[in-house]
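Thread: "does anyone have the structure for this chain?"

Original post by V.I.:
We have the sequence but no experimental structure in hand. Need at least a predicted one for the grant figures.
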Amino acid sequence: MDKVMTPHFPEPLIIGKPPRLRSAPGPLPTAEQAGPDTEIDGADLEGLIIRGASVRGDYHRYDGLPRQDAMLIRKLGESHVLLAVADGLGSRDMSHLGAAQACRAAFEECPASLLDGYETRSDPVVYFADIAESMMDFARDKGVAVAQTATTLTVAVIDVQVQQGVRLCHIMRVGDSTAMQLHGGEWTSCFPQDDDQTLASSATYALPGDAARVEATTWVLPPGVMLLFCTDGLAKPMAGRAVREQLATWWQEGTPPSLPEFLWQLSFRVKTHDDDRTAICVWGV
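Reply from O.Q.:
Generated one for you, tokens below.
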């Protein structure tokens, strides 16, 4: 029998100086209803390619703490897809439950009126208030203090098919999880007010308490453009030029990555950045 050669799979790419902690899952978390260390999902749709992953950070791995990030990718009928990323606040013991519930509620509470955009400026506020109410009901059912489930949330509702020559993406958020556009190798924030100061100050906003703080915007997703939705575990290292350029190289050129390749790319390592990291990328094709 011919010997089967096992290919060597590289460790996650180190950008800049090597981190202090090694990249390994570490002990299993003991927190109530802790999710898996890593989550990966995606879809190939007509005109859209979606890749998503959520990875527990080195700090949480080392200390046996749960991944506090969450994500969700779901089809809304035949014409739309919903994406959600959430980052449970590190100071709250049950925020991993809050992040997961916020993503579920984003899908369950999404009103039909949002599928075609914002009929009024209050639509996103009402939507996020419903998400917050679902989170509070969930916390009470679990016997958990509502404040301990605090989480950021970014939601996107995207046209699967082109409507009148364009594909629209309606984006809403509370907190510092964000969205960016990649086009021609350049990154642009979908929320223009995002800068270092904004990221630092908006971190205090979280669901369920700050539902009225929701921000909303609409972007077009043409072929050749990618939209990124991520938690600050990715947004913060992207403040460095080397990380931005490496991600642009991976995600702009050629064919979008396979699911395993996307997970490997998102697992890159940078010194001092050891938080959970979650990203969903959507390519217009």
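V.I.: this helps a lot. The chain has a mean pLDDT of 90.
O.Q.: and The longest helix spans residues 123-142.
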